């Protein structure tokens, strides 16, 4: 999940110079919208108890796939107008939401003794994605929609993986997260207790 969020986020950011309009104005729009979206996420997470981590990750990933599929089609047909910028802005905000879900789930699903190491390992995997992301932009030389289509395909894989393996961690008491060896001999299982 971290690898996909990283490679998609960096690749679309590196590809932002292909969006019509002034590059600096576009970057200002991205920055403002991302900052506002973080405040909205905190408000929704605080005031909606039914808004879970799995909902955050899978919902955001589904919107990313939809937005970048639309951008793939627009790029294929050569449309780069205002709608292209708006859809790109929305897709980028939701890529940021998948990042937030990755951090939250990693921190909340690991016991205290290994939380920093686990998050650091996830960050290392994300950096590998960041290193590989310029190659996606280089693929635009052969086929202009390649970055956007790759984001869609990786996003769909990420969506399936998170649906299958992502555990719900909202309202978990971090002191109660521990590795339980009693399930099967030699196979540690993550066990967590919800806050009472």
From TrEMBL:
SUPFAM superfamilies: MFS general substrate transporter (SSF103473). One of its GO terms (cellular component) is membrane. It is a multi-pass membrane protein. Coiled coil: none annotated. The chain crosses the membrane at residues 24-44, 56-77, 148-166. It is found in: Membrane. Keywords: Membrane, Transmembrane, Transmembrane helix. This is Major facilitator superfamily (MFS) profile domain-containing protein. The lineage of its organism: Eukaryota, Metazoa, Ecdysozoa, Nematoda, Chromadorea.
